[in-house]
Protein 1
Amino acid sequence: MKEPDQHSSPIKSPKQLIIVVVLAFVIPIVVIVLVTQLVTGGRYGSNESDKDVLARIQAVGHVVIGEAGPAKGTLAGDAVYGQVCKTCHEAGLAGAPKMGDKGAWGPRIAQGQSTVVQHAVAGFQGKTGVMPPKGGNADLTDNEVARAVVFMANQAGASWKEPAAPAAPPSTTAAAAPATAPPSATPTQAGGAADGKKIYESTCVACHGAGIAGAPKFGDKSAWTARIAEGNNTLYTHAIQGFQGKSGVMPPKGGNTTLPDADVKAAVDYMVSAAN
């Protein structure tokens, strides 16, 4: 019996060779296609919970139109001090009695709560210093100013009672809430630019309207000439950071530290244009 040749090939003809070569390419491709269909044939996310799907498709970022601030007239004394009064009373600018200085506050406390509050609300110019109306922030209510006065006086030994905050208005849903800006919002024009006139009338007029603490009066060309000669950049820096010179004192941002720098610059431009 003849033994089979171990070195012979199972491919006996060119036709068989062609079939083997074709199958060598076709079979792997078919296997890959079948595996792909098996993996991706179902709906993506069909096995995910609603929570997982929402987490996966949520936007990368979100836009916040604005956040509600505290209702007008509800700020406590320490909050008003931190936002407005601190500017002058922490460093003693324009003769303001420093926070906690019993020697400086003693004579004022002796005048009584009603007198000191009246001076703080309406403004006062005495021998030792100047108090602009409401610390230069006309947005504050009289009661908010009174609470700040009581807070500072009590830190210097007084035992005055702080006026109570008004009752908070009933809560409303976001859909029913009016689209109004908080009291500290920036006065702006339709195009988004700061309105120098509105900022002057709400903050700067406290000192520049009457020339308090050496502030150049609005429209007084003789008082503004030397300052204008220093250049706008210098005026901006003094108005934003504060300045104490020979002729007067400029508290940072006019005492309203919530103002953005752009608003302060707009107010400076408005006053400069009125003096040119």
Protein 2
Amino acid sequence: MNQQMTIEKMKSMRLQGMAQTHYANLQDNLYTDYTLDQYIALLVNQEWEYRQNRKIENLLKRASFRLSADIRDIDYSADRGLDRNNFERLASLNFLNNNENIIITGPTGTGKSYLAQAIGRQACTWLHKTKYYTATKLIDDINLAKIQGTYHRLIKAIQQTKLLIIDDFGIHPLDQSSRQALMDIVDYKYDRSSLIITSQIPVSNWHALIGEGTIADAILDRIVHSSHRIDLKGESLRKKRKINLT
């Protein structure tokens, strides 16, 4: 059979990993170095890796991260109260397996968003469906969905993520609509999946921020009691970098 026809058939069956590997081996005449069983195994493995990488790429795209954060690039030298052993345990994603949450608090510029998104990107590489929102964007999307009649679809999509990241929580007080939406999200995700929440506001002030005591109690009970806490301190890392560059 014509080798080019074989490659085209692979592509038509969406076996892109196999097609690319087979084409490269034909070009360099490497396929003769393998037994038949070995060569079939090679093609299957390459196809599997290709599909895994595509899944990861799609998960990263749908997560909508703002930063290309990487756990390998975390700065532990800065004096901000970040314990390396503790953070690396969280980055191993056991908290996801246990449906636990992470709360990261601290002053602006101490790296809360970077840490949250680094863990989020790690989750995507392990094929966990992840979604990143700033708190403001989440509220805006909820309000728009209510106007467009797609609220339940949006909430369902958010609920079904394995990891939901809400960044900069508490910049604006919650109104009744966003408070109820947060309750809908948190109540569904409790003991099913995980949240990462970052905030400049100490957790002790969240009750007043959420408002309506009964709902605030219910939300915080589901978020805080099953959470790992990272409390960052110190000056802004952005400010320090700017000083060092001048």
Protein 3
Amino acid sequence: MNSLQFNKNESKKLSAIVGVKPDFIGQLTNGNSIDNYYDEWVEKKIDRKTGEYKKYKDGTIKERVIRPSRGEVKVIQTRIKDRILSKIELPSNVHGGVKKRSNISNAKPHQGKKYQFTTDLQNFYPSISSKRVYETLVALGYSSHFSRLVTKLTTWKYELPQGTPTSTHMANLVFLKTDVALIEFCNTLGITYTRYVDDLTFSSQQDFKPHLNTILEIVQSGGFNINYRKTKYKGEQNITGIDVFLHKVDAPQTIIERAVQEQASGSTIKPLTNYLNNIRKTNRKKHKIQ
């Protein structure tokens, strides 16, 4: 089979997986027609712990660029996520974008640990280029043509866009090599490691401060940048929006207060109450707010 016929077969394979005609896949992956299937806007960042806007030291509100897909491209991306990406097994340490895992399951393993280290990846999605997505797919065993098509369908403006069905899954795959390196290093030292999208957490009963530089070097050697403002080493931290204590995990006080207000309002829809109960039911002594 010559390369041209092989590429045609790979295109047909992808079109069968996502349920659209090969001609439409070709239209989207050649030229700029895919631009018509994206929106773009700037969103103010909100602190999960306080509910307030995040600000720089000079008082300027922090922002991020949101680039959600729409129409047929969003449908195709959802099918790529469900039928390709989500079938690739990830380590149990990874919680963001993984079915039946959450920010709560990410925080829970660190309960009761005396020493906790948290850090954050800077500009996680924008820092992942189309080239890195393509190389990751090839490394996972997909053909170069198949990988090129999937890359074209899941990246925009040469990077992973924030706000699409596939971006978190694809980011997890790009970070997988670094995850494995961190897991192997932490296992040798008895350190618990979890990751929720761009939030990395490490904990132990033993002081592991001498090893922090090595942990950060592993992350940076993988081609990722550290947000040093969000890098903390202490006990009883807020981990991915969850307050982690010696004997329990709980929501921040602001969430608890808002859940109480929600209860008092008499509303039949209680998202904060449900969220709080989901956190608290992981504790040994289960209790609900009254």
Protein 4
Amino acid sequence: MKQVLSAEAAMARAIDCARLGLGKTFPNPIVGAVITSASGEFISEGFHQGTDHAEVIAINAAASIPAGSIIYVSLEPCNHHGKTPPCTDAIIKSGISKVVFAVSDPNPIAAGGAKHLQGAGIEVESGICYEEASYANRAWLTKITNDRPRITWKIASTMDGKVAASDGSSKWITGELARADVALMRSQADAIVTTTATVKADDPLLTSKGLGNNPIRIVMGSTENANSSQIFGKDAETVIIKSRDPQELIAFANERGFNQLLIESGPTFGTALLSQNLIDEIVLFQAPTFLGSGTPSISDLGITNITGRLDFEIADVEIIGADLKITLIKSANHEESGR
């Protein structure tokens, strides 16, 4: 019996496919595509992972594309010739009759796909599952909007907000399952950013631990670290930026085309980024334990009045083993709060 999908289910599947490309597509967005018959019978699917685009992969995966077929795409098909030909041309040649996409392409270089498809006589519909697709592709959309990669700060703390005890010890605050989840996060990022101080204190490896791609590792700071430090191993490329200036980090990230940076450092550097309005997202892992004293997860932001607070919105809450994982997204009111 053939699987029949509603329009919403087909797009949700395309978005799930798109997520499989996280950490593999920069400087391009993640995109997923699903092809069904006119009546919704599943035909094929594909996702962009750095080479062919999702639409082309889905088309090539189809044994046949009957008349009236529909392709569901998480992002408007591109209409320019970059590393690959325009996806719109592949769709037109395939005989697909209708294109449904979730999010319009805000990149002026690649935009115009919908108009080109309509000019070829293909029916086009947009906006279905817009919120879900935008959230999945938020790193690339942030880059296009802000001309810099999306910056996520990972924090592992106790319930009372401490990232280390008074003697500096911090391994391990959270449990093994939470640490595995962090490794998965790394595989979905384009680069991990830490500091020379963190390398000296913790000697981190900062890899995906076999759960996916190993991201590029960036070490910020002018202090020299020992050549024997794990971060200088051959597991992944390591780049040293002899500065703590966030703008130098952003300039390098833009030069490389990164969509997303994951910050894994102590509170000093993370707070510096936060105070400059450069943290878009915080993923907070909290262990059900208390220290009472020790190093707080965030340093002094210079806020003296409640009206100056930096607001974030809770996007997701999960229990990972014994620990709590809270995903916080910068609030729309964040930039309106003043100090």
